[in-house]
Amino acid sequence: MAAAIKALNAKIRSNKYTDYFCSTHFWGPASNFGIPIAAIADMSKDPEIISGRMTGALTLYSGTFMRYALAVTPANYLLFGCHAINFSSQLVQGYRYLNYYHFGGQDAALAAKAREGVSVVKDKAGEVKERAKEVVGK
């Protein structure tokens, strides 16, 4: 049995593509891609849910590992790409956080919600007025 496993491993390692596919140079970045995918998905959500500390930590983490991905031998371009995407996504999230909490975005969002609420109330008041005219006219 051990000889069969050893032969299978030698067969896998003899092909450079399957050798790469079975290595940590592939599976490390592949499993790490969940972080940038989540950051990209969060870009369409309300900026109120963004954690400034976590965004900063993930930006530093990805910046550090972008450098690490190129420092190892052989260079791991898949890992570099993963962290470059995450770094960019976290910078966008950081901008959204700063804009919302420190540059007036929160006030603008609240004002927009208030204007929306006023227009809804006016629409409802118009409907009530029309209904009242119908009832009184009968």
Automatic annotation (TrEMBL):
Lineage start: Eukaryota, Fungi, Dikarya, Ascomycota, Pezizomycotina
Q: So what does this one do?
A: Mediates the uptake of pyruvate into mitochondria.
Q: Which GO terms describe its biological process?
A: pyruvate import into mitochondria
Question: What is the topology of this protein in the membrane according to its UniProt annotation?
Answer: Multi-pass membrane protein
Which InterPro entries does the entry link to?
A: MPC
Q: What is this protein called?
A: Mitochondrial pyruvate carrier
Q: Which keywords describe this protein according to UniProt?
A: Membrane, Mitochondrion, Mitochondrion inner membrane, Transmembrane, Transmembrane helix, Transport
**Protein family membership:** Belongs to the mitochondrial pyruvate carrier (MPC) (TC 2.A.105) family.
From which organism does this entry originate?
A: Ophiobolus disseminans
The entry's localization annotation reads: Mitochondrion inner membrane
Q: Which domain of life is it from?
A: Eukaryota
GO cellular component terms attached to this protein's record: mitochondrial inner membrane
